[in-house]
Amino acid sequence: MADNFLERHQLEYEEKKENWLRKKKHLPKLTRKPEPPEDETL
Fold it and tell me: What is the pLDDT along the chain (42 residues), one digit of tens a residue?
C-alpha cells in the first residue's frame, strides 16, 4: 500500500471535481420560457 495509493486517488478526485465545477458554471442559471415570435405582418 506504499505505492502512493492515497495521492493518486486524491489527484483523480481533484480532477473530477474541477471538471464538474467547470461544467456546472456553464449551465444557465434560470430556465426561460421561449418568447412568442413577433408578428411581422403588422
Answer: 567 888 889 999 999 999 888 888 776 555 667 777 777 765
**Is the pTM above the cut of 0.70?**
no
d(CA 8, CA 16) in angstroms, rounded, equals 12
Closest residue by Cα to residue 8 from 16, 21, 19: 16
Q: Kindly list the distances between the CA atom of residue 19 and the CA atoms of 15, 16, 22, 25, 29, in Å, as whole numbers in the listed order.
A: 6, 5, 5, 10, 18
